[in-house]
Amino acid sequence: MPFTVIAPRGVLTHTGEGRLIPDLVEALIETSGLTGNTFFTPVVGGHLHILEPEHVYTGGLNRPVLLIELKLPGIGLPTPGDRADFIATATAIAAQHITPAHPVDDIWVNISYAAEGGWGVGGVAYTDEALRSAISAAAVTS
After folding, report:
1. pTM for this one?
2. Is residue 124 classed exposed, middle or buried when 0-12, 13-18 and 19+ CB atoms within 10 A define those classes?
3. Where are the domains of the chain?
């Protein structure tokens, strides 16, 4: 479940550049109720892309928007409420890592979905049912 974070240089604090994606990953794992799941945990990750501020636009104007994108299989965050809650969580996490002058309204979060069978790990294309099975098989037992 990859996160892609695109940030204009200077929007994230130095610590935020190193912590934003790990904090988002941890939040998604926790929100999914899969902490410690040996299949799920290693397939949640992300990339941080830092752009020069003059390369970021919204509404045709140069504006330093921080963009968090999350790509999920169909089984991830399945309801509109789940997605809304995670967007609020991701925004709150990002707000902890931005410089004081950056407005929270300029943190955008997008969630998109891979087509059924279009989620692949290690060369294996997983259907939603195959993902459920792999996650269940790796469930942490107490």
Report:
1. 0.92
2. exposed
3. 2-137
Structure tokens that stand for 61 in this block: 């104007």
Q: What is the CATH number of domain 2-137?
A: 3.30.429.10
* Ordered per-residue pLDDT tens for the chain, 142 residues: 899 999 999 999 999 999 999 999 999 999 998 999 898 999 999 999 999 999 999 999 999 999 999 999 988 899 999 999 999 999 999 999 999 999 999 999 999 999 999 989 889 999 999 999 989 998 865 4
Query: Long-range contacts for 77-80 (Cβ within 8 Å, ≥24 apart)?
Result: 77/31, 77/32, 77/111
Label the pairing between strands 66-72 and 2-8: antiparallel
